[in-house]
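Re: [ENG-882] Designed sequences occasionally contain unexpected residues at chain ends

Forwarding the minimal case from QA. Structure tokens:
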């Protein structure tokens, strides 16, 4: 009888663990965020970004399956950040529409706290990489924008150097 109770407890334990009560991983959270963006606006953003890239004769742009476009200027050789990492970056953020700079500097951020475009783009880059991210509004600040510097539905350009990856 004791052996049957131990087996029953073991089976219940296994079933309880598999019930999905585990907290979501950062990757699952990012996937949910990507799924929740306005797909109509996202497609319109991609058209504008592609036009910008073409009109400015920008070459060697990489397009990810989720649509993020980026260009490697200098490829680094260090580790790539995970969504759970903290990153040190030097960056310059500007509006694609008129090139006005809305933010710049060197800072340390938990990657999980940043905009979707950075959450998608930075894990693609080894430490030491300098890249340009072409971030659609839906992967940036969306229809809300970030007044007064970033109007609603603004596509953004980030020139980034991934200085360090802190696990």
């Amino acid at each position: 009888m004791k052996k049957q109770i131990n087996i029953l407890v073991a089976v219940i334990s296994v079933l309880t663990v598999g019930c999905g009560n585990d907290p979501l991983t950062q990757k699952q959270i990012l996937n949910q965020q990507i799924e929740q963006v306005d797909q109509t606006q996202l497609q319109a953003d991609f058209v504008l970004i592609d036009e910008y890239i073409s009109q400015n004769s920008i070459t060697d742009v990489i397009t990810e399956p989720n649509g993020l476009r980026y260009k490697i200027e200098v490829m680094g050789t260090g580790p790539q950040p995970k969504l759970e990492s903290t990153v040190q970056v030097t960056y310059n953020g500007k509006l694609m529409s008129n090139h006005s700079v809305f933010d710049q500097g060197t800072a340390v951020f938990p990657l999980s706290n940043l905009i979707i475009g950075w959450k998608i783009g930075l894990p693609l880059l080894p430490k030491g990489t300098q890249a340009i991210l072409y971030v659609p509004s839906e992967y940036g600040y969306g229809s809300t924008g970030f007044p007064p510097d970033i109007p609603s539905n603004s596509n953004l350009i980030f020139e980034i150097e991934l200085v360090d990856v802190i696990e």
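QA comment: On inspection the terminal residues look reasonable. Confidence is low (pLDDT under 50) at residues 1-20. Proposing we downgrade this to a documentation issue.
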